[in-house]
Amino acid sequence: MKILIIFIIGIHLTAGVIHSHSYIYTGTSGIPGFPEFVSVGLVDGQEVNYYDNNLMEMIPKQEWVKGAVDADFWKRNTQNIIGTQQVFKAGISILKERFNQTGGIHTFQQMYGCKWDDETGATDGYRQFGYDGADFISLDLKSTSYVAPVPQALITKQKWDGADAEYRKNYLTKECIDWLKKYVRYGKISLERKVPPQVSLLQTDSSSPVVCHATGFYPDKVMISWQKDGQDLHEDVDVGETLPNQDGTFQKRAELNTASDERKKNQFTCVVEHKSGDPIHMILTEEKIRTNSAGNNLLIIVAGLVVAALVLIAVVVVMVVKRRSGYKKANQSDAGSNSSGAAAQPLHA
Questions:
Q1: Which residues are in coiled coils (predicted)?
Q2: Which of 42-51, 237-246, 298-307 is predicted with the least confidence, judged by mean pLDDT?
Q3: With left for phi above 0 and alpha for psi between -120 and 50, is residue 45 left, alpha or beta?
Q4: Beta strands 198-203 and 289-291: pairing type?
């Protein structure tokens, strides 16, 4: 059984690459110091372009992406995204009325994108909206109609079903894939690089969980597990989400919640598996644990990485919750031949 598990893991980490291209729009209301509108474009998890209402300009975030677009791309898409910004601002006002809300903090998000398996040629995608961290409406490409999980979205579904749904389906199933393949071609060296993780054992104090922290790896697929005396440990283990670093790499953590006495009686090992090389086995010893109390500043560095990625994380966090809530994902795509993404449509009152 152990050999079978290792074999399956090996397939998971070495199979053909599934490339992705997505856009995330986030409109906010009532959050001091945070932009009212943010747009982030991603290719294989790398941030490739960025816009917010303070900057008022879409800018490239990777050097290679400049070669994949024409000279007027940034100006054209800046104008497009300014229009989307206005739609999102109006949308929050409309949704507050529908949900019978007045003040407070509110978020309205759209996430859409496509995926392409460079080995099988299979494609997939999605287009969905969220309000205040919950599903609001999404497009089901199989039925070419919108799915409204809450009553407040029914009026939007009625207005968007039909011609708009057909337009979005055509747009999302063809042009996004074309753009994705183009981006992969231009960013091949960067997107297909393999950077191994740096693994550390961290602990805030002697009574807190021990964290196995892997950072600096690329691509984002990584498996972190804990073993007790050579056997996989599932209880007392909490594996976190994969998060982006500011430099385009990723980080992930797995907490071990066992008492100090238990750790002394048994051998605990953190195993990190990444396609960049052989699995990393980090045996837990008191000498290897880095803590704030020991005067080590690694935890501060890790916190700095998270803070540096806060804007991106803030943009995706609500949609991550939404995608895990159980609603079916629709097949979609995103980038147009003349612009970076589909034009936003208003909700209407």
A1: none
A2: 298-307
A3: left
A4: parallel
Q: CA-CA distances (angstroms) from residue 280 to 5, 7, 101, 222, 223?
A: 17, 17, 51, 11, 11
- State whether 119 and 35 are in the same domain: yes
Same domain, 171 and 135: yes
- Looking at the structure, tell me whether residues 180 and 244 fall in a common domain: no
Distance CA(192)–CA(219), nearest Å, equals 8
| Total number of domains in the chain | 2
Contact criterion met (CB below 8 Å) for 6 and 268: no
* Burial class of 278 by CB neighbour count within 10 A (0 to 12, 13 to 18, 19+): exposed
C-alpha of 292 from chain center: 29
Distance (Å, rounded) from C-alpha 238 to C-alpha 346? 41
Which residue segment(s) compose the domain that 298 sits in?
Answer: 198-310
pLDDT tens digits for range 293-318: 544 445 444 544 444 444 444 444 44
Sheet (strand 231-233) strand order? 231-233, 222-228, 268-274, 280-283
With respect to residue 340, please indicate whether it lies within any of the assigned structural domains. no
Together in a domain, 182 and 206: no
Residue 37 phi, psi dihedral angles, 5° rounding: -150, 135
CATH number at residue 35: 3.30.500.10
Q: What is the pTM of this model?
A: 0.75
Which residue is it, tokens 């110091």?
A: 33
64: burial class by Cβ within 10 Å (0-12, 13-18, 19+)?
middle
Residues 26 and 165 in one domain: yes
Phi, psi of 265 (to 5 degrees): -80, -25
